Amino acid sequence: xxxxxxxxxxxxxxxxxxxxxxxxxxAGFRAIICNRPDGEGADQPTFAEIESAAKKxxxxxxxxxxxxxxxxxxxxxxxxxxxxGLPGPVLAYCRSGTRSATLWSLSQAKTRSVADILAATKAAxxxxxxxxxxxxxxxxxxxxxxxxxxxxxxxxxxxxxIAAAASLKSRKPDLEIAIIxxxxxxxxxxxxxxxxxxxxxxxxxxxxxxxxxxKGVHWIKAAVAAFEPENNAVxxxxxxxxxYTRLIVCPGLKLDWNKIEGLVDTLGQNGVxxxxxxxxxxxxxxxxxxxxxxxxxxxQPPMPIKCAGAPQKAMYLSGDAWARRGVLNNIDIQFNNAGxxxxxxxxxxxxxxxxxxxxxxxxxxxxxxxxxxxxxKKAWFDVTKPxxxxxxxxxxxDMMHVCPPQxxxxxxxxxxxxxxxxxxxxxxxxxxxKAFDNVxxxxxxxxxxxAKTAAAARIQAPIVAENILADMRGGSxxxxxxxxxxxxxxxxxxxxxxxxxxxxxxxxxxxxxxxVDGTKATRAAWFLKEKMLPPxxxxxxxxxxxxxxxxxxxxxx
Length: 557
Prior knowledge:
alpha/beta, Protein-Tyrosine Phosphatase, Chain A, five-stranded mixed beta sheet, seven-stranded mixed beta sheet, FAD/NAD(P)-binding domain
């Protein structure tokens, strides 16, 4: 007997026998649904035998036989009525459990998200790819078969998606490309640290999406619900289907604010802020300007996160502002990091530690934020030091800058494109999907072990473009990604530690050391961040102008 839980009220399993009934009762089930017609297998007990054994020990049993591969819309509706009408929890079974899981999936399509349904069935070991369009369509069989078709479909119009589209169009102008993204506004997210430090105005970091989509590229303003990579199809909310010859997946990350208890209710008030949101970065600067004394906590969640240096950038710029106003000695700065190191590439740590000491900041490693009470100005952290029991500690604060936990979007995590951890599964050199040859990924959502930064996407976009065009010519990948990422660590107003590195923490400086020494805080790096990188982003990267982003080509052995 192999029972798989879908919800607290419903589980499914393969064929059961009369000898299993007592164990089912002992497991707490009060009702059974049989979804397997009698006579499918020679050794299969009849429903009457199951029902009789169940009734003897007080379990209700209902017969809803479904022929394999023929779950109708009416069957799903009937399953919902039956399962909710029985005393719970309920166990539904068929030959393998797939029919029962399918019935549940379709019956829940109007009340649960596609991602929640696919996550539950995937965790139970059941693949609902064959009915995903019906789930997206509210559990009903779609009647619209008119699919849009493109040479290339790009999911996500963030930095990676628009840059990839622009790079491809610059190489092959006649390519039919569609970008799928529901957002009206495109944000230059690296600028939000500067907004939180009082250097940029928030409006400098945004543009309308329509103004940035490359000329000749179709913009499908919709959300993706699911993928059908076997059918070369993307399913949109509302069950519209977009077909592709090749696919690029780059939707960015999900900021999981709800994972921290009480956080959503207090963001933007009670001294709780975050530079990871456009509307909150100005509040960061408001708090910094108004603070004269007290405790300021800066948090960093477990990896991976986008721009791993951003949580400490907020700390440094805040400390610098307090030092300039002469109130730093009255402020207790605490940096609570769920990880065990200040920065993942050790070569840059000495320069950063100079500023940790300058601002007299306390580094609290293995401290992961789990709950916040904004009105009470209290936060709780789970301390998970190696080889020691987890300990929960309470800290009071006057200001707290929070970096939220981050994951791949739900529709990515539950898809066939994802690895076991939920990230798009690519070859780390070519950025091509490991299982689907016509799928590529770049940016934050793929599983290559690089830093998730806009600088990384700037390098990745032309690599993906080159490799897709090589594939169109019938050849093998011609460009490879070395893991390049960049993190300009704003340690004070006017100086930056420019961390540039690749796979394995290898330093990959873009400039000669006499111009910019990345292991030290320099004014040249600040000038790059403040004056050069924004126009490089808007006028270069997003326009297909690959300044300092020429792909590294694969050389023959």
